[in-house]
Structure formats: structure tokens, C-alpha cells
């Protein structure tokens, strides 16, 4: 009996590891991008302008009106440099995303798909879990913020002033420290879910209108504010030294999170090979310009020490007697939150669709409506989960455990760029060394990630700068090993410059930022990873199929593209 149990246990773990280490095969672009319609795929209706607006819509929310002033209180006018540094680091990550987006088949999946191909099945599932928890909590939190903004605008009407109960939009008093009822947030989520279920054309139109409105308001605010700037407010430029500017960069980098949403639209893009890289870079550059413009204006209008933490930009204009601009800012905040919420719901449904096709989730998530060409089941599921979270819980208290998924995703995408180029070479050559070239490359990437995390801890807890320098030097040696001991091939389409140095820098900085997160975020990362492995062990490994419909699906073209 004991021998049979041992054999069963051995068989279980053997199957687990063989399944966990499975990977997808990177098919060529033409194999999946030029097929005919058969009623099972998403429809290609998104052009380059739509993709850029999706990236902007996901990145620029109400935070642009708040986070600039909050960080400026410590960094001073140097907050502009903080946004430039953070933007530069995101540009490096965007270059990695652009290469993979142009190289992979035009299917849903994004970071999950890249990880599945470059590494293995279990790692991809782990990345998906981290991204999903970030997205669900983040979206529910944004829905509550949007409900609060909507109520604030309604209360501008004298009849409603102070007459709307808190449980309508602001959230009721907390019960048991977590439960807080909010009626309007689930209603807004339900409306956006219905729009997304109707079709990508309708949701893209709403996103385009709201994002354009938001950008126009921001440009108007920057222009009006420029005439109120007092250059004496920019001195001293860095009142608390360069460290405060660097610390500010670690905070504001999360303001750029969202440009990666563009890659999820691959299956619905008209010309994904050309438009995805342009959409990623274009949306990020627009966001950088907007943030820098707001920083310059707000720190020039009001001395940094007088900036508010909750509505800094609106307060700055009110102090100059420009209250009508404050009203525009509130409208822009509503538009920003709406687009962020809309894109967040859209991205999550497409990720669930990808995992449903691969068998890692039940097949119901893989179904696409035959006439609407949207993943209705996945979209409804996402809407229900977020409605429950937003309607019953004060999820904003969990904001300090967010960004784990984004930083994990950015790091893993950078690593995918390196390993896939290594895999191109080692696939046709047999290594005679004790460790394969691909394996050596992965070890170097892990060392760089660990050094980035260690350097972040040393910086966070004000340890000796010698320790910080040692961690950085070790990372430099690992990057040098990647550069001089490996040979890389250029991809057939868009190529990220400076491989492997650029991806190595991305990983180092992202892990440095990971170390700056609240310790509960680290606990969340470990606990969720354990739970994900358990789910994979008892479900995923038996149902997953790397050679899935995600690679054989037949894609639809919009009528305009067919005419071409």
C-alpha cells in the first residue's frame, strides 16, 4: 500500500513538473495574421489612433490632478525631474513591449503569452494571477473614486448639496473595518460592462471621446496655467536634495502604468505588426508630455510647500481666482477615471479569454459571441467580480498592495526579450558546456533582479551606500556576462535597441521599485504565488494545452479592412 502511494505521489510530481515546464512555440506572424473568418475570433477594428487612445486612457486618470502636487510637497519643483526619470525608465520597458508585440502572433495574452513562450506554463500562470489581482482591486478602487467624483459634481447643484447619502457614492461608514456599501460604483461598472459586451467599436468610441476630452482639458489647463506661473516659485529647485527627487521618481512611475494595455488589443488591431509598437510608444510619450506640463505649471503657480495633497491642481487654480478651471478639472477627472475603468475592464476580459483558450481556466472563458465578437462570458465575469468588490468593500485601503503585478509584468517582459533572442540561437545549436547558454542567460537575469531588489532595500532603509554600490556592481557584472558571453539575433520586425543592456536596466530598476512597496505587498506576492501554484497543481496542469486555439483561432477583419 505504501509503495503504491509512493508511486502515485511520484507520478503526481513528475506530471506536475513536466506540465509546469511546458512552453508555447513562437509561431511566425504570417501564420496567424492572414486568415479568413469563421465566426470564432475577435474583430479587427482598432487603428493606430484607437490604440494610442487606449494607452492614454489606461494611463492618465484622475491621479494626474493629484499625484503631482502630493510628490511636489517633498521633491519641490524638482518633481518635474522625477517625472522625467520615471518616464525614461518606462520608455525602456515600452521598447521591450514593442519588440514582443511586433514579433508575436496577433492574439490576446500580452505579458502572459510572452511568458508562456519565453519561459514556461507555470511562470505564465503566476504572472497572470499577479496581474489579475492588481487589476480587480485597482478597477474596483477606481470605480469608487469615479462614483465619488460624480456625486461631487451633482452636489454642485444647490438642491443636492449635502443631501446625498454617503452610501450612494462616497461609501458608507465601514463595518468590521472593511465592509463599506457603495451603490453608484457597481452601477457605473455595470454600464461600462454592457458597453464592452456590445462590441469593441462601441467601447472604442466611448474611450476615444472621453480620452480626447481629457487630453483637451489638460492642454487647456496647461496653457491657462502657463500665464499664471511665477518663476520665483521654482527656487529652490530641489529643497530636500536629489534623494527626494529620486524617491519621487519611485512614486510617480506608477502614474505611467497602463501603456502596456495596448498589447492586449493585438487581436483586434487592424495592422498589429505596425501599429502595436507605435501605439505603445506614442501613448507613453503623450503621457510623459502631459505629466511634465502639469508639473511645470503647478509648481510655478503655487509655492510647493502650499500645494494640497488631495486636489492640488484644482486648489492651485482656485487660489488664482480661476474657479471655472477647477470645474473643468473635475470634469477631466471624471473623464480620466472613466477611461481608466473602461480600459481596465477591457484588458481583464481579454486576459481571461487567453487563459480560457489555453485551458488554464474553464473553457467558458474562451467563448466569443458570434455576432458581437466580444468575449461576453469573460467580460460579464470581470464585471461581476468588480461590482462585488466596489459595492461592498472599501478596496482603497488595499491600494498599498497594488503595483506588484505591473512591476512583475514589466520585469518578466524585459527578461522575455533576452531569453527569446537566446532561444533563437540555442534552438539550432547544441551546447557542450555544463550549463546551456539559455540557462546561463536566465541565471544572469535572476542575479540582476536580486541585485535590484537588494539595492532597493538598502536605499529604503538607509543602509550604507557601500552595500548599495556592491549590489549595483554585481548587477553590472551579470549584465556584462549577458553582453559578452552570449550572441543575440535580431528579430524580423521591430527590434529593441541595446539588448541585453536595456532589458537588464529595466529589470534592475523595476525590482528596485518592488523593494519600495509596502511590506504587505511582498506578503501578498508570496501568498498569491502559493495559492496560484496550488490551483495549477489541481486544475491547470490537467487541462492546459500549449498548442491551443489561441494559436489556431481564425481571426476576423473589419469590413473596412476586407475592402482593402
Strand content: under 5%
Q: What is the overall silhouette? A: globular
Q: What is the CA-CA span between the terminal residues?
A: 68 Å
- Work out the helicity level: 55-70%
The overall average pLDDT, rounded, is: 86
**Largest beta sheet: strand ordering:** 1-2
Please tally the β strands and state the result: 2
Rounded Rg: 24 Å
The description of the largest β-sheet is: 2 strands, parallel
Order of helices and strands: HHEHHHHHHHHHHHHHHHHHHHEH
Q: What are the low-pLDDT stretches, counting only 5+ consecutive residues below 50?
A: 29-38, 424-432, 549-564
| Structure annotation, total helices | 22
| Helix/strand structural class | mainly alpha
List the helices and strands and how they pair.
Elements: H1 2-20, H2 30-33, E1 43-44, H3 48-59, H4 67-75, H5 79-103, H6 111-118, H7 121-154, H8 166-169, H9 184-198, H10 200-226, H11 242-252, H12 272-301, H13 312-319, H14 323-358, H15 376-392, H16 404-426, H17 437-460, H18 465-485, H19 501-514, H20 519-543, H21 549-552, E2 556-557, H22 559-563
Parallel strand pairs: 1-2
Task: Walk me through what this model shows.
Belongs to the amino acid-polyamine-organocation (APC) superfamily. Cationic amino acid transporter (CAT) (TC 2.A.3.3) family. One of its GO terms (cellular component) is membrane. It comes from Ilex paraguariensis (yerba mate). Its main location: membrane. Helix content is 66%, strand content 1%. The model is unreliable at 29-38, 424-432 and 549-564 (pLDDT under 50). It has 564 residues and is an all-alpha fold. The chain is built from 22 helices and 2 strands. A two-stranded parallel sheet has the order 1-2.
